[in-house]
Amino acid sequence: MTNLPDVPLPSAIRSRYVENINGLAMHVLEAGFETRGRPCLLLLHGFPELAYSWRKVMPALADAGYHVMAPDLRGYGRTTGWNASYDGDLAPFRLTNLVRDTLGLVSAFGYRAVASVIGHDFGSPVAAWCALLRPDVFRSVALMSTPFAAPPSLPFDTAEKPARPHPEDPVHRELAGLPRPRKHYQWYYSTREANADMHRAPQGVHDFLRAYYHHKSADWKDNKPYPLKSWSAGELAKLPTYYVMDLGKTMAETVAAEMPDAAAIAANKWLPDRELAFYSEEYTRTGFQGGLQWYRCGTSGAFNAELQTWSGKTIDVPSCFISGRQDWGTYQRPGVFETMQTTACTRMLGCHLIEGAGHWVQQEQPEQVSRLLLKFVKQAREGVSA
Questions:
Q1: CATH code of the domain containing 58
Q2: Which helix H or strand E contains 343, and what residues bound it?
Q3: What is the mean pLDDT of each run of 10 residues along the chain (386 residues)?
Q4: 180 with 132, same domain?
Q5: Cis omega (within 30 of 0) for bond into 48
């Protein structure tokens, strides 16, 4: 990795590598590293993002006295040691092993506990499982854009009435049978073709990412989310096409229809083209399959039995949820936003929907996100109730 260009970072953040993290050489961004003994905050990115996605909030968190770490997670960016072959072993990308990655990183930096683990998008379930499995290490958790539903349930009370085999979810067949045939993006992301569709997008990786980020941001004016009534084809079809796609389209084709014009791109303050260029250069180099493996772990159901080990367990450390008010991610799984607050998290100190932000909340509204995170971590450390 020594021949790669420098990451374009604010002066308060440095880029480094840490070896032997659960088989990875992990690329990590750090802020607040100048003095030892600071409490630690660990930031976990989502898809298709990188540690770089936290560049706008890290300096503010460090200025408040924290050692802030944001790694390129397994399958992403400049972290190496992973194999994203479609026909390779999915097990290294399952949630419990991603928790092991984060534990290894924390331990490598000499921490037995961190003040908070903070996850956005697919980093949110990883952060949630960190808090669920090792509350002694991850003393609080902030979930961003993706609510947590709780571990999958075990079959219950089946000794006298054995459980039937779990039927195939009919929603995919029903989506395909709609008058406007559709498909769910997570199952599309699990196909063999998805990586090439994006990596070899007709418009190029840079313009693909520009359209993708725009489509899911508050800049796309049709992002006006609301709760869905059920996990059914009729309800899911209300989601934007970046979540429930037209059946015959790739993701590159889907977002191309919403590509902003040159004036809108020039006016974009939260992701100017020079910053987007870092994402596009990294994904041009690595492809997208490393991140897509995470989706495959979920849609395949291959690791549900392992996760059922913690059936009925709740997140009992202080928690909070932060999302953009214009982010459909809050509601894409009907009922989960409500379950998180009533059942899955027992010490939730707040749910915040930030106006003027879509899915990329820490990039679209970094000042508000920094303020809410610092308030939450202070409350969690002081044992303050909501």
A1: 3.40.50.1820
A2: none
A3: 88 97 98 95 98 98 98 98 96 98 98 98 98 98 97 92 80 98 98 98 98 98 98 98 98 98 98 98 98 97 97 98 98 97 97 98 98 98 73
A4: no
A5: yes
